């Protein structure tokens, strides 16, 4: 136990823990938005776009986080532009861009002779490399997601219920939906720094899926998702320190275990 406390006193360790606490509390809220807005395809596109962004960052030796954020914004703008006309067009444009991103990432990696070890880091990520500036970015995004969920709750519920109904009622549903899409994009971008491309869902989607087992309302869904994210992020991180395993895999396994042990809510 003393050894664990000594580890937590190290700068990279407590910065990683602080960032994971922030992400665990807030990113699952974006995961709820992904599920309720049926944006799973867009999430995959963002993940593959980040692989391209990471390849570019490694090729030109520039910080990855700004590139991740820029790539997510660009991906969302392109998908929204190509996908005008409804959810079906949005899914088609997201699939198109996903394939293009992977192809370009492979070309950049090969052309710039990026070491395979560095490429693997894009897939698995590491919270231990989080810097103070990046931690501040995590804090701002986490606060933004939480405040948006609380302050814009009524409009979020309207969009979740029925986008067309929200539009017909004079509500600017498209604006609120676009805001949610960008919050999802930023959450995906920052998750890449923690757990890499392959396990982003451990922070974003799995806590929301866990919450679905117990929630009886959308408000409970947000609350339970945040609690589940916090528990799995902290538990997974602590296990990674004790067992000397990668944090990303321990967070994912913690989410999976919590999903298995949480009973499903009985319907009245």
- Give me the secondary-structure category: mainly alpha
- Number of structural units classed as domains: 2
N/C terminus separation: 45 Å
- The CATH superfamily of the largest domain turns out to be ABC transporter involved in vitamin B12 uptake, BtuC
Q: Looking at the structure, what is the overall shape?
A: globular
Oligomer: single chain
Order of helices and strands: HHHHHHHHHHHHHH
Sheet having the most strands? none
Helix fraction by DSSP (H/I, runs of at least 4)? over 70%
Percent range for β-strand residues: under 5%
> What is the CATH top level name of the largest domain?
Mainly Alpha
What CATH architecture of the largest domain would you give? Orthogonal Bundle
- Spans where pLDDT lies below 50 across 5 or more residues: none
CATH topology heading of the largest domain: ABC transporter involved in vitamin B12 uptake, BtuC
Please count the beta strands (DSSP E, at least 2 residues each): 0
- How large, in whole angstroms, is the Cα Rg? 19 Å
Mean pLDDT: 83
């Amino acid at each position: 136990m003393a050894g664990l406390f000594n580890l937590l006193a190290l700068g990279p360790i407590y910065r990683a823990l602080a960032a994971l606490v922030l992400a665990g509390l807030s990113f699952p809220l974006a995961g709820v938005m992904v599920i309720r807005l049926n944006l799973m395809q867009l999430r995959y596109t963002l993940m593959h776009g980040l692989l391209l962004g990471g390849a570019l960052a490694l090729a030109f030796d520039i910080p990855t986080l700004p590139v991740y954020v820029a790539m997510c914004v660009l991906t969302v703008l392109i998908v929204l532009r190509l996908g005008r006309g409804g959810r079906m067009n949005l899914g088609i444009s997201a699939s198109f861009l996903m394939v293009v991103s992977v192809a370009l990432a492979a070309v950049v990696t090969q052309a710039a002779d990026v070491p395979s070890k560095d490429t693997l880091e894009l897939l698995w990520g590491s919270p231990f490399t989080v810097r103070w500036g990046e931690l501040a970015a995590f804090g701002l995004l986490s606060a933004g997601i939480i405040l948006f969920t609380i302050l814009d709750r009524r409009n979020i519920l309207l969009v979740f219920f029925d986008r067309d109904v929200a539009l017909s009622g004079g509500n600017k549903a498209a604006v609120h939906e676009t805001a949610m899409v960008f919050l999802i994009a930023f959450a995906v971008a920052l998750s890449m720094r923690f757990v890499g491309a392959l396990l982003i869902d451990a922070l974003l989607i799995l806590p929301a899926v866990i919450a679905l087992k117990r929630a009886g309302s959308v408000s409970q869904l947000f609350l339970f998702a945040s609690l589940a994210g916090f528990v799995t992020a902290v538990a997974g991180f602590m296990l990674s320190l004790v067992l000397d395993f990668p944090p990303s895999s321990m967070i994912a396994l913690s989410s999976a275990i919590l999903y298995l042990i949480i009973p499903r809510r009985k319907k009245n």
